[in-house]
Amino acid sequence: MRRYRGLAVTAAIVVLLPLFLPNNFYYDVVIRIGMNAIMVVGLNLLIGYAGQISLGHAGFFGLGAYASALLTSRYGWPPLAAMLAGMAGVGIVAFVVARPILKLRGHYLAMATLGLGIIIYMVLGNESAVTGGNDGMSVPAFALFGYALANERAWYWVTGTVLLGAIALADNIVDSPVGRALRALHGSEIAAQVAGIDTARSKVLVFVVSAVYASAVGSMMAHYVGFITPQVASFFHSIELVTMVVVGGMASTYGAAVGAAILTTLPQLLSKFEGYEMIVFGLILMLTVIFLPRGLLPSIAARFRRRG
User: What 3-state class would DSSP assign to 233?
Assistant: First the structure.
């Protein structure tokens, strides 16, 4: 019931929020919040529930974005088909690299995922004949059932609907036997193996699922913005995503969404301090780990439960 209450509250926010958005600028910020929330909900399955760090997840976001851009602009694919093809392709890539990478632990795993993200970023930047290199490339508008999503209000409802679906899927995974296996894996991989859990399979599965989430959002963002560069797969973007998960609350689906909302809005508030975003993100991450190790939303919820 708690899961359904959370989903109902999120749906109510999605429905009522347009009443408080006066112009397209605010719609744009909320759309970006929603897209980031979708991605970190998937990343939270990997980091928060399975306990597997990824410092290169923006690479999968970039692959999804360029898959949609290339298939629609150069080969005339329908945007939805290009998006699904990108998700399938990224899922295959994630599956191939997951087994060797996820045999590592701790900082070795972090460095391996960092290296994967850098490789993707370098390929997107250097293969200029295909991707346009650092000059980027244009992306056609997203058309769904013959209707082009040409304004922020249309994108708002699509993003809100996808966010609700992403949260519902993540909650179902968490409450399934797979989710219980992930939590056991996070607690102790050796104990999970002793209990008969195929830890290698569980880690590969959650890695693929989180990569597919990122690919889907990459496609959405590419069509929404209409232009992409290799910066979408940068290391800083990966750090942003991890920070959103940690700040909002690891092993909390709604906490991850709250973290996305806070850290997507923050650059708008710090626009006068351009160039210092990395310092601010690092400071927020450090303070959260020290004073709110469970993250913002779980810590607040725990405090209310103690008072009750």
Answer: helix
Token output for 88:
């399938």
Residue 213 in domain: yes
- Among 209, 281, 288, smallest CA distance to 255 is for 288
Residue 101 lies inside a defined structural domain of this protein: yes
Domain range holding 30? 2-8+25-269+277-307
* Single pTM value for the model: 0.93
pLDDT digits (tens, 9 = 90+) for 133-159: 999 999 999 987 778 888 999 999 999
Residue 193: count other Cβ atoms within 10 Å of its Cβ: 14
Question: Do β-strands 143-144 and 137-138 pair in parallel, antiparallel, or remain unpaired?
Answer: unpaired
Which residue has 């725990």 as its token pair?
302
Q: Tell the burial category of 227 from Cβ atoms under 10 Å away from its Cβ (0-12, 13-18, 19+).
A: exposed
What's the domain count of the chain?
Answer: 1
CA 59 to chain centre: 11
CA distance 207 to 244: 18
Residue 13 lies in a domain: no
* Residue 19 located in a structural domain: no
Give the Cβ contact number of residue 72 at 10 Å: 24
DSSP H/E element including 228: strand 227-228
- Which tokens go with 226? 């209409």
pLDDT digits (tens, 9 = 90+) for 94-113: 999 998 998 888 888 989 99
